[in-house]
Amino acid sequence: MNALPPMDVAARAPRLRTRFADAGIDALLVTRLPNVRYLTGFSGSAATLLVTPDAMLVVTDGRYRTQMGEQLAAAGVDAIVEVGATLAEQHAVLARAAGALDRLGLEAHGITWAEQRTLAEVLSSTLVATEQLVESQRLVKDDGEVARIRAACAIGDDALAELLPTLGDGPTEADFGVALEHAMRRRGAAAMSFDPIVASGPNAAMPHHRPSERRIGHGELVVLDFGCVVDGYCSDITRTVSVGDPGADARRLWDLVAASQAAGRDAVAPGVACAAVDRASRDVIDAAGLGDAFVHGTGHGVGLEIHEAPRVARTASGTLDVHTVVTVEPGVYLPGVGGVRIEDPVVVTEDGAVPLTEAPKSLVVAPH
């Protein structure tokens, strides 16, 4: 894998602080791990980050003492690191650090009611619910973030190209899913973005079908939805294929979804409402009389999480900005028959949508 360009992680907390006044807070307690990673570069599984007007404090446990220091230094982030062996010790550290703060923001969508009640008991600050402060900042990716998503997409593209011919051997859905994971790991993936979806024949009518022991047969639709992680950033790709000719009805269904996906991609541009992108894809399927079989949104943001803001759906309220990364993934699902979904993540540029995946969109896989 080629060297990836650096990300300016150290610049993120200062940008976050400029939003404190509008949120009505003096500081923010960051408890969602993807947000902790975004602001510090730390990739471990236990950390709480306190961002004050002039400093950052990260509290973790002893497992991550060394890793925390190394990753913050590599990211160029200046923060105080405190280690607490127990949750009570960690809360005591936070209480001391937040003692002079009047209004402390909590990530309302990233903390449980029980956790909020505990913090209310140990902190003297007034706790204020905040909504998407860090996530909304994550909407616009820098060049380093886009490069990591693109690298994860390239791994998926390459793994799919290697394995598509093996569908003709009749593997089970589960075996093909394992092969996809192994192929992406061999190419440098740190993890899977999610468990691969391999859905063949009637199983393709279930958008989130999990691979089973069913063998993939010739002449049937197979939905392949998968992705991997490179340096924390996810990829997400879906292709629908058939080993040999699946017949006229399946070809028409595939052509319809391909046209819908192209319409959605063509609608992506700076300043365009996310709901308008959804409508562009959905109108194509509605016009064919299959609107009721398109049962999910057209897309979602991709980055440190496989599903993040913005939503691309009928009810979405956001608009697209330059360097936002979203998927365009319409699908049609016919229970008992099968289904088709085609998906690419795209980055929004001044000129529209640039796809980050390069795998061909071809229905028929030649059998061995």
Provide a descriptive summary of the structure in words.
With 368 residues, the protein is α+β, with helices and mostly antiparallel strands. The chain has eleven helices and 20 strands. The strands form six sheets. A six-stranded mixed β-sheet has the order 4-3-2-1-5-6, sandwiched between helices. A four-stranded mixed β-sheet has the order 8-9-12-20, covered by helices on one side. The mean pLDDT is 96.
> What separation lies between the terminal Cα atoms?
31 Å
Helix content: 25-40%
Mean pLDDT: 96
Number of helices: 11
What's the story with the biggest beta sheet? 6 strands, mixed
Q: What's the count of strands?
A: 20
Work out the strand percent: 15-25%
Low-confidence stretches: none
**Outline:** elongated
The secondary-structure class comes to alpha+beta
Q: How is the largest sheet built, in terms of strand order?
A: 4-3-2-1-5-6
| Rg result | 23 Å
What's the layout of helices and strands?
Layout: H1 12-17, H2 20-23, E1 27-30, H3 33-40, E2 48-51, E3 56-60, H4 65-75, E4 80-83, H5 87-97, E5 103-107, H6 113-122, E6 126-130, H7 133-138, H8 143-163, H9 173-186, E7 191-192, E8 197-200, E9 222-226, E10 228-230, E11 233-234, E12 237-243, H10 248-267, H11 274-287, E13 299-301, E14 308-312, E15 325-328, E16 331-334, E17 338-341, E18 344-349, E19 352-355, E20 364-365
Parallel strand pairs: 1-5, 3-4, 5-6, 12-20
Antiparallel strand pairs: 1-2, 2-3, 7-10, 8-9, 9-12, 10-11, 13-14, 15-18, 16-17, 18-19
Please tag this protein with its features.
368 residues; alpha+beta; 6-stranded mixed β-sheet; 4-stranded mixed β-sheet; 11 helices; 20 strands; 34% helix; 22% strand; elongated
